[in-house]
Write a structure and sequence with these properties.
Distance between the termini: 31 Å
Strand content: 5-15%
Order of helices and strands: HHHHHEEHEEHH
Length: 207
């Protein structure tokens, strides 16, 4: 696996925000013991761990972390838990980041992206990116709008302050790969999917 592919995998998995340190064990090394790693923020440490793991291990770690949290919560309603829905969502994430075709162009204040794919890839794009547009807007530094197109979604993201040249440059530099990682909602979203809580229409998978 190339470093480039590993990096893209880490982007997909960074959407989760729930990766556990056990990924290091899969590689036979505790990266937290490396010089300077003890000072790295947990979310960046998690991303580094994910860069060292193939997609199947990343999904495994995410589901494992959710299972631990569900078991630790005495209020968990096991009659509603749907871990298969979470697994299907992780498949969506992999399809969107690794297999979608993205055509990006500059617009005033930011970028426009046509994110498309055939079959399950296109369906995954529609499920994920419409919801992510709202999450990006909620961040407070972006304005994101999505519209459905043939085979996927057109996502337009601009800096909230379109006259801020640095902010606009950041949006364009982040592009699709960077913007999909933005937001602290991913861990909460995954817990909601796994615990069977209602989400946006058409987004939760049913086995």
């Amino acid at each position: 696996m190339t470093h480039f592919r590993r990096s893209l995998i880490s982007v997909a998995c960074a959407l989760c925000g729930t990766f556990a340190a056990q990924n290091a064990g899969a590689q036979g090394m505790d990266h937290s013991k490396m010089p300077g790693m003890d000072k790295m923020p947990p979310e960046k440490m998690a991303m580094m761990e994910m860069m060292m793991a193939p997609p199947s291990q990343a999904a495994f770690a995410t589901i494992q972390d959710i299972v631990k949290k569900l078991k630790a919560d005495p209020k968990t309603d096991w009659s509603k838990v749907n871990l298969e829905a979470l697994r299907q969502h992780l498949i969506d994430m992999d399809n969107v980041v690794m297999r979608a075709v993205v055509k990006q162009s500059n617009v005033d204040g930011g970028i426009s992206m046509d994110i498309t794919g055939s079959g399950e890839v296109g369906a995954a794009v529609k499920r994920m990116m419409t919801m992510h547009a709202q999450a990006l807007t909620d961040e407070g530094v972006y304005v994101a709008k999505s519209s459905e197109i043939d085979g996927g979604v057109r996502l337009i993201v601009t800096a909230k302050n379109a006259s801020d040249a640095k902010a606009v440059a950041m949006v364009r530099a982040l592009g699709f790969a960077g913007l999909v990682t933005e937001g602290d909602h991913h861990a909460m979203h995954h817990m909601m999917v796994a615990s069977g809580q209602p989400m946006m229409a058409g987004h939760v998978h049913k086995p």
